[in-house]
Amino acid sequence: MIDFKTFAHLAQIDLGEPQPKSTSVEGDQLEAANTLWTSEDGKIEVGVWECSQGRFTARRDTNSEICHIVSGRVTLHGPDGAAKDVGPGELLVLPLGWEGEWTIHEKTRKLYILHSI
Predict the structure, then answer these.
(1) pLDDT tens, 55-88?
(2) Model confidence over 16-45: pLDDT tens digits?
(3) What global pTM score does this model have?
(4) What is the 3-state secondary structure (H, E, C) of the chain?
């Protein structure tokens, strides 16, 4: 039988001890995450992530990502120079092959869904 899963309010989920952000290019960023669910085939992962203020690079070479911003404010910078501000309650999609930068203006928490190829 296949059953459903439920989780506590996303703003309240414990993410553990923050660690240095390895792709940070500005600021002493710390990040923490908690994987909530992974599909049996390992191709889908759902979790909560949080990061402190600063700027980091990101690439979606092997997966796409859907993000729902729970709290905080970010600006996404695409490879063509386009920038988009995203805040609480907003959803963003980073398709397979996307690369760019995130500027975190204040500590930000998101729900993420990764879909690997």
Answers:
(1) 999 999 999 999 999 999 999 999 888 999 999 9
(2) 999 999 999 999 999 999 999 999 999 999
(3) 0.93
(4) CCCCCCCCCCCCCCCCCCEECCCEEECCCEEEEEEEEECCCCCEEEEEEEECCEEEEEECCCEEEEEEEEEEEEEEECCCCCEEEECCCCEEEECCCCEEEEEEEEEEEEEEEEEEC
